[in-house]
Design brief:
By secondary structure, the chain is α+β, with helices and mostly antiparallel strands. 20% of the residues lie in helices and 16% in strands. It has a three-stranded antiparallel beta sheet, sandwiched between helices. A two-stranded antiparallel ribbon has the order 4-5. The protein is flat and about 80 Å long.
Length: 138
């Protein structure tokens, strides 16, 4: 057995060294404008379609800045672009109105469905249903 050496014991309360800063990766994601143009071309639409993010931190928001890359627009430029974000392309006639995909996303996200039963019939747990959204009156 080894002898106990108190002088060479590690300090349990010493703050660990900070990890080295993450190495910045090159942003190789396409520009929002490039994606918009490609989507318009694929759909055979002469106008400028709306792009709505459906996943991640910015889900439900429209991508408006054609000069930003997808990484900048969906992740504030952090991390790396792996192509995992889901985008909805919406052809619309009026460019000043909010895209229907963004409206639907907010409606679904902000609606709660409450199922309940009559106290005399506990076996029917989903007998009644009330859907409540953030813009409804209780």
């Amino acid at each position: 057995p080894q002898d106990f050496d108190e002088e060479n014991m590690p300090d349990l309360f010493e703050a660990p060294a900070a990890p080295p800063p993450a190495k910045a990766t090159d942003d190789t994601s396409p520009l929002v404008g490039t994606v918009r143009t490609a989507a318009a071309s694929a759909l055979g639409h002469a106008g400028s379609p709306a792009l709505v993010v459906l996943t991640g931190r910015y889900a439900g928001s429209e991508l408006r800045d054609d000069g930003a890359t997808l990484l900048q627009a969906t992740r504030d430029g952090y991390g790396s672009w792996d192509g995992s974000e889901v985008l909805c392309v919406e052809v619309r006639g009026e460019t000043d109105r909010r895209p229907q995909a963004a409206v639907l996303f907010e409606k679904v996200r902000n609606t709660a469905h409450i199922h309940f039963n009559h106290p005399d019939r506990p076996e029917f747990s989903e007998e009644f249903k009330v859907s409540v959204s953030k813009d409804s009156t209780l």
